[in-house]
Amino acid sequence: MALTGIEIFKLLPKTNCGQCGVPTCLAFAMALAAGKTELARCPHVSEEARAKLSEAAAPPILTVTIGTGEHALKLGGETVLFRHEKRFENPPGIAILISDTMPEAEIDARLRKAAEMSYERVGLTLRANLVALKGETGSPEKLAALAAKAKQAAGNLNIILMSERPEVLGAALRACAEKKPLLYAATKDNIDAMISLAKEASLPLAVKGDDLEGLASLTEKVASAGLKQIVIDPGARKTARSFQEQVIIRSSAITKKFRPLGYPTIVFPCEMTDDPMKEAMLAAMFLVKYAGIIVLSDYRGESLFPLLVARLNIYTDPQRPLATKQGIYEINNPGADSPLLVTSNFSLTYFIVSGEIENSRVPGYLFVKDTEGLSVMTAWAAGKFSADTIAPAILKSGITEKIRHRRLIIPGYVAAEKGALEEQMPGWEIVVGPRDAADLPAFLKTWKS
Amino acid sequence: MPFQIPKTVYSGKINEVRIGRGTKALTVGGETAYPFYLFEGTMPHPPRIAMEVYDVPPEDWPEAVLEPFRDVVHDAVAWAQKCVHDYKAESICLQLASTDPNGMNRPANEAAQVAKKLADAVDIPLIVWGTGNPEKDTDVLRAVAEMCPERNIVLGPVEEASHKKIGAAAIGFKHTVAASSPVDVNLAKQLNILLGNLGVRDDQILIDPTVSGIGYGIEYCFSVMERIRMAALTQQDTKLQYPIIANLAREVWKTKEARLPDDPRLGNARGRGILLEAMSAMILLLAGADIVVMRHPEAIRLVKEMVNELTAG
């Protein structure tokens, strides 16, 4: 709903007072449009203009928060259809379904998985931590007991409460209201009661429609009751229709600024198939286009791990590549005679190079040099991967206490640095390795210390 | 507020490219909208899967993906026939790994013999892939082109450094080329222009934008493919209006994560490998891939089922 600079300018006081830090109102309007400043810096803007502008500044897919504190899950806030146009903002929540019909032991195991399953990657911890508690028995006490149990589980869990019966949902939310759970779902049959529940406890509310048109009229009703924290479920559970609904929702919000569908979505691969592998495929599809929450029937390592890594990949800001920490990485349990290689800290470079060393089965040390996330060639061209920065980094790294030899393998693309490195690292032999990481296994197999 | 389904304004269409010959030939491309956006346009030909066959027994495949092929890895022809009979393959991608100058360095003519035998043994479309060494690929793919005339094989990778000779062979012997460039829209476009200047027809070109799997830069190829499709369909960029081929399987199965054993957190190795391959393929199909080269029969089944459902409307 981005306004242009000129549209914003029309709403400003046009005093050119300069108190915002910019000499003219027009310049301030331009800076606002570019997202470089904020409206609060203007002391003279009218209330009416402020309301208009802040509404216009809201992202086309509104941001919704489930939970509280540092582990709160932020959804939506999306502004583009394609990640290369800017970036995807908030990665979808990936929930595990827990039903109040499940045996206690199963419930405990699932809560434990939800709290504990995590993966380390590029210095980040990938985790899901979202539980969808479903009231299938219809008993308010049962779902409330489940909600209370989830509240007692690890503090990092966020909760979705699922029932279309207001009395069941009401009992459950009272058991865990301070966790700020998402209520699922308001439908055309229960909407008034659901609105009061959500308002009373100021909780986010999911709205489920039978189709997009019906959904839009329901969200308008919820929004007119003053609720802005809305998550939407257009209802379809068939692959093609569900996929198309996700695309239509995103594009009507972004290209048509259609507010009634401008909310994060919730999808249910767990209700679309009984085959866990197929379910993972549906989840991958929704991850890319364009779910806000994906509810799975279970967390299984073989599907959760690829899903979380794919989520990290797709939601990486295209303008800010991920970087790996500078340091010595030990691969295949190296010893004092194992080869030492150096590469850049662009995380993709790190993964590929370390993967190929691993594939070679040759034990080795990989020194990752901080190149501000640039790849080898780009970093070299920018002067961030040259002899005068590589040499001191390696000499100070403590690697000399780990290896007996003094030989360093450099990427083939920076062969030109060989001479300068030998000058700056007296006593060292600089070996030019292959250009392409794929040739590392063959290269390393010929290594003699 | 009345609700109307918003429609992207498309001004272009992807070329239709026919590969193989006879009754089993396949046509790919022809899309008039983004992948599976059937409310906006058509996808007259569903994306296709090509099953991988190697000309030498693979040395380092994880058990999960070796298992279905263990009885045929020593014989590319038997391997391809197994793909056809047991797994209903609709296309085969022969990876001529033996020709790698840094490896076995098998001579071009010997490698082309394997391609010829395979082309004689199966009637479905064939993709023949070199090792990415432009000099060697030139020799190898020209020999393949010459030895299998008029079979309309997809020859790849055809890079800027090798495009002239392989392009000429494709024209002369009636084949299709996979124009390969390193994850960059402009380089992809430039190579297509060069091939066009050489006389390679628009219905003889596929784009290989270079791909990788989940965890190894899939976001880069995903966005490059999306940008190619966007330019082709909405910006009338005729030099990007080609179907896209993704040579994916080898990128997935060589990764550490596909090779780690069963693990309480990472799940069972077989399922993990299959899903890394199938989910990577799904993501690339959503970006615009028309042909995906795949390996594990179960991963292929999963992807085909998704494609069938998404194209059924």
List the helices and strands and how they pair.
The complex is a heterodimer of chains A (449) and B (313).
Chain A: H1 5-11, H2 25-33, H3 47-57, E1 63-66, E2 73-76, E3 93-99, H4 104-116, E4 118-121, E5 124-127, E6 130-134, H5 140-152, E7 158-162, H6 166-176, E8 182-186, H7 191-200, E9 205-208, H8 212-224, E10 230-233, H9 239-255, E11 266-267, H10 276-288, E12 293-296, H11 301-314, E13 327-331, E14 340-344, H12 347-360, E15 364-369, H13 376-381, H14 387-395, E16 407-410, H15 418-424, E17 429-432, H16 440-445
Parallel strand pairs in A: 3-6, 3-12, 6-7, 7-8, 8-9, 9-10, 11-12, 14-15, 16-17
Antiparallel strand pairs in A: 1-2, 4-5, 13-15
Helix pairs in contact in A: 1-2, 5-6, 10-11, 14-15
Chain B: E1 16-19, E2 26-29, E3 48-54, H1 63-66, H2 76-87, E4 92-95, H3 108-121, E5 126-129, H4 134-147, E6 154-158, H5 163-173, E7 176-180, H6 185-198, E8 205-208, H7 218-234, E9 244-247, H8 249-253, H9 256-259, H10 269-287, E10 289-294, H11 297-311
Parallel strand pairs in B: 3-4, 3-10, 4-5, 5-6, 6-7, 7-8, 9-10
Antiparallel strand pairs in B: 1-2
Helix pairs in contact in B: 2-3, 3-4, 4-5, 5-6, 7-10, 10-11
Quick description:
The complex is a heterodimer of chains A (449) and B (313). By secondary structure, chain A is of the alpha/beta class.
What does this structure look like?
The complex is a heterodimer of chains A (449) and B (313). With 449 residues, chain A is α/β, with parallel strands linked by helices. Helix content of chain A is 39%, strand content 17%. Chain A contains 16 helices and 17 strands. Chain A has an 8-stranded parallel beta sheet with strand order 10-9-8-7-6-3-12-11. A 3-stranded mixed beta sheet of chain A has the order 13-15-14, with helices on both faces. In chain A, helix 1 (5-11) crosses helix 2, helix 10 packs parallel to helix 11 and helix 14 crosses helix 15 (418-424). The termini of chain A are far apart. Chain B has 313 residues and is an alpha/beta fold. Chain B has a single domain (16-310), classed as TIM Barrel, CATH 3.20.20. Chain B is globular, with a radius of gyration of 19 Å. Chain B starts with 15 loop residues before the first strand and ends with a helix. At the A-B interface, strand 4, helix 8, helix 9, helix 10 and helix 11 of A face helix 7, helix 10 and helix 11 of B.
